[in-house]
Structure formats: structure tokens, C-alpha cells
């Protein structure tokens, strides 16, 4: 073994003939093959023409022949009477040769740019470190230096020749126009090790700086997307509220009730089922199975397409439903008309939500910001025109909202047209049969996801109904409406961080990086808490200015400003809870999230809030105090479950789920 490392030439005059040299080369090749070191199957990572490939091969063979002639001449000199060499010929060790010799990019492809050269040099440095470790493996295999010296000392010259030959031989890939990798000496097990590095070895450790940068970079556009998607309902309320009509109050109540029914039936159910994509798409993208995203999209379209049928019936008869639960007939009529106008836009919202999930899983988030801006502009300008400058009036507000909903999915068409590679990367074409096979997994994850969403939304709607039973109900409803709007607006910021954490956790689990997933979950929670503290300071500092945006009554403004102080503890916990639920979606544990929400809101939050509001006379702040206690319980349970997570097991589950 020592002779191999030093690459010296020992031998007598009988071993220097050309025939013996070739025999030694063959023996050495067999030795290397037995040790798993002889494998010329390598590929290059730069496009080249067939003529360039032939040119490089000829140069490699020419250099090899030149070295072989020098070796043979040296062997003849030993045989011709000079005897053994008085001193060993110090040639570079195999490991040094593998690490130091570089294949120049410009020889393989003269048109290779700076980026290609940089990628090549990075790959060669990494490969050199892998190859250098192979010789330590040989030493540990039991080859003693004394026993191996007698067998292989005379073949040291041919060893370097064989390694040199393997260094320059390569095969082209199946695609003649694109060759990937570069010809290096790679044994099979080192190639597997390299692929493990690329897919994410389990023991690889993340860096906090890198993960924070990824989280913030991904969360920033997502935050603005959800904030912008919050405005359409506010714009509709504002437009209707400025109508000069004796029925303005009934119009406002009708829009509010229509929005409530749509949220609980159409949006809550559809978007809740779509949360299955948060798990499936992010993990498939991490597992380098981009085409799976297209299959999951088709499965989601099938599920939501079937779901739309009962959703359509429920919202078409909104008026009858509201009258049945005791709402005023005139208000119910306006709510029913508003819902019926918006119904054709529900499928567009479903399609856009599914596409948004697929793109977010691939870290493509900026286009949705621009699309949300376009949709809001359409809603504002078209709504203003139809509401105030045509005879549509109340109906004009609903028509503008419908058009803005339709704009969302259709705005993706020019984006995909301008960036066809984005769609081509993950769209496999229509495979309805295969998509049907994945409907079960979409429902398995989507139903608990819908429960997570609906349990939270329903608690707010029930609380709004209970607020109307308080003394001074008009004042209580006004204050509660201000708190709900502030809470919803702030929640969109936390939802952006939640989606970013969800995407990163799912991607890392799919790529078999459990430690990265763990760090992403923890950093997401830290970022949410820090952001919520900053936002809470801003809200408290402006607590008497914010209500003035919605109301102009000084007494209501003062009461709302005081009640906002009770909202802040809830807001801090809600930020943490949102991110932890995103982590649960990324790991595929949506059932756990639904169970936690059930206990947080319906077992603790609402009962305690009702007790504080009525029995203890706290009014509206009492409801929010009860919700705060409930969500604190949810945060504690979620945090404990995340800390107890077997991240290696989650990575295994992700591999099975995406296989």
C-alpha cells in the first residue's frame, strides 16, 4: 500500500519489456476495479457539440500515449544494463493528481461562460475531496504495506498511467446536445455519496443566517399578497356605505351577511381543502419530483370541482337560509342577491388558489403580488364607476367584485406565456386517471385542513352573534367590528410568515433535510413573535386613530381604543399559533392542528369569553380575553408537539408520501 501512495518504480530488468508493462497495466486495472476505484461513467454539465467531444477525446488519448511511451522508455533503460534505479522516481500521489488536475472548461466548450467555469471549478473541488478520501478506505481494508509491496511495487508506474487514463475518459449522456458532469474518477459508492449531498444528507447542519434569509425572502412577497387579498371585502363595504340611499344601512348589513355565508361555505370549505397542497406540493418539490405538482393540481381541481356543486346550492339560497335563522327579510334579500352575483367567481377563486399553492411550493411568490394589485385596481375603479355613475348601484359593487375575482386566474395566462419554463418545469400534461388516484390523499389532508380553517372562522362568527346580545348592542357591535378588522388585517402579516415556514419545512422534509426543517420551524416562530411585538407597539400607539378609519362617533372611537388593549395579547399568541399551524401543514399533521383548534376555540375560548362578557360584565373585551386563554392553550400544545417531533421520521413520511 505504501508503494501505491509513493508511486515509485521498483523492479528488476525482467519486468521492463513492453509486454510486461501492458500486463502490469491490466493487473493494476483489475486491482482498482476490485477496490471499486475504476469507474469511468461520468457526465458533464455543459452543452457541447459532437465535434468538440471528439476533439477532447483525441487530446486525452494523445496525452495518455505520450505518458505511456515515457514509462516504457524508462523501463527499457532499466533493462538495458543500468539495473534498478538508484533512486525512486517521485511522482505525484494519486490523491494529489486527482485533486490538482483540472479539466479546463474552455477545452471542452470554448463558448462556456464565467458561470459555467465557476460551476465546474466548484464541482471539481468537491469531487477532489471525495476522491482523496478513497485512499484512506484502501488502507483500512487490511492491505499491509509489506505484503502489498511485493505484489504491486513493479506496477506503480502503470498505476499512475491507468488513473491518468480514467481521468480523461468519459461517456456522453443520453441527450447528445447536453452533457452533464465532468470526467472524474468516481467509484460507485462515492457517486451515491455525492447524490446524498445534493438531495440533503440527514446529518447536514443548517446555518441560522442562511435560513433567516430564506425565510424573510420568501415571506415578504407572501405577506403583501395576503394583505392585498384582504382589501376586496373592505372596498365592497366602503362603496356600499357611501351610497346615498335610505337603504344604505340594509345594504351594509346585506354585504356583511353575504360575506359571512360565503366565507363559511364557499371560501372556508374550498380554501380549507386546498391546504392539502401545502403539504403535498412543498414535499414533492423538495423531493425533486416537480411533475408531481401538476398531478396534485389536477387532483385538487377534481376535488374542488365536485365541492362547488353543494357550495353553489348553499349560496344560491342564501336568502332562505338567513331568513330561517331569524335575520330580517330585507337584509336577507340583499345578502342573497349579493351572493348570487358572486357565485360565478367562486370557481375562479378555487383555480387561482390551487395555482397559487403550486407556485408557492416552488418559491415562486412575486407574481401573486402583482396579480393581487391588478385585481384590487379593477375592484376599486370598476366598482366606483358601476356603483356611483351607473344605475347598477348596489349590484354594481357585486359585479365589480365578481370581475376582480375572475381577473385572478386569468392574470396567470400572460405570466405563463412570458415565462413558459415555469409551467414546463412542473406541468406533465393532463393525466386524469393518475390524478384520480391521488384524490384520496388530497381528501385525507384537505378535510382536516378545512376543519382547521372553519373552526377558527366559525368561532368569530358565533362570537359576532353573541355580541349582539350584549347590553348596548349597537355600540358593542361597532367596537367588535373594529377589533375584528384590526385582527384580520394583522393576521395577514402572520399568515405570510406561516406560509413561508410551511413551504420551507415541507421542502426540506421532501429533500431529506430534517435538521433544516427543524430550524426553519423554530426561526419561523421567532420571526412571528418579533414581528407581532413590533406590530403591537404600532397598533397601541395609534389605537385611537385606527377606529376613526371605520367610524366617526367619538364615543365609539374611545371605546374601541380601550378595547384594542385587550386585543394585543390575543394578537401576540395568534401570530405564534399561525406559524405553528403552518409547520403542522408542512409536516402533514393537519388532523393534529384541527384537534388543537377545536379545543382552543370551542372548548376553552368561546365558553370562557361568554362567561367573561356576560357573567363578569366585561362586554366585548371579555370575549377577546376568553379567546386569548384558548389560543394560549393551543400555542402551548402546538409548541410541545413540534418540539417532540421526530424530524427524521417526518422526512421518511415525506419520501413515502411523494413516492
Automatic annotation (TrEMBL):
Superkingdom assignment: Eukaryota
Where does this protein chiefly localize? membrane
> Where located?
Membrane
UniProt KW keywords: Membrane, Transmembrane, Transmembrane helix
Q: GO cellular component terms?
A: membrane
Q: Entry's InterPro entries? A: MATE_euk, MATE_fam
Topology in the membrane? Multi-pass membrane protein
What protein name applies here? Answer: Multidrug and toxin extrusion protein
